[in-house]
Amino acid sequence: MTQTVTATYNDSMKAVNAYDELISKDFPREKLFLDRDTNVVKVIVPDPGQREAEEILNRHEPDNVEAKPYQD
Q1: What is d(CA 58, CA 67) in angstroms, rounded to the nearest whole number?
Q2: How far apart are the C-alpha atoms of 68 and 45, rounded to whole Å?
Q3: Whole-angstrom Cα distance, residue 22 to residue 52?
Q4: Is the pLDDT of residue 12 over 80?
Q5: How far is 63 from 9, CA to CA, in rounded Å?
Q6: Which residues contact 30 (CB under 8 A, 6 or more apart)?
Q7: CA of 11: how far to CAs of 20, 26, 55, in Å?
Q8: What is the number of other CB atoms lying within 10 angstroms of the CB of residue 29?
């Protein structure tokens, strides 16, 4: 199953840094989303990649991280 992992940050630089780290770890850009207005980073990953995505997002001190099944 595919998951959408969403992290909310209180600082735009934390969100940008998390997004950049996901890119540097070869997460596909077309599966990443950065909303600079709300400091939200979303990544769409298959189940095996969920843990790594959450670890990366958590390294940048989010206010909240949640995972939900991906829906088109």
Answers
A1: 13
A2: 11
A3: 9
A4: yes
A5: 5
A6: none
A7: 15, 24, 18
A8: 10
Taking the C-alpha atoms of residue 27 and residue 31, their distance in angstroms, rounded to an integer, is: 7
CB distance 60 to 5 below 8 Å: no
The SS3 assignment for 57 reads helix
Report the alpha-carbon distance of residue 12 to residue 4 in Å, rounded.
Answer: 20
In order of 21, 23, 35, 72, the CA distances from 58 in angstroms are 11, 15, 17, 25
Tokens 């298959």 belong to which residue? 46
pLDDT at 72 over 80: no
Query: What is the pTM assigned to this prediction?
Result: 0.94
Report helix, strand or coil for 13. helix
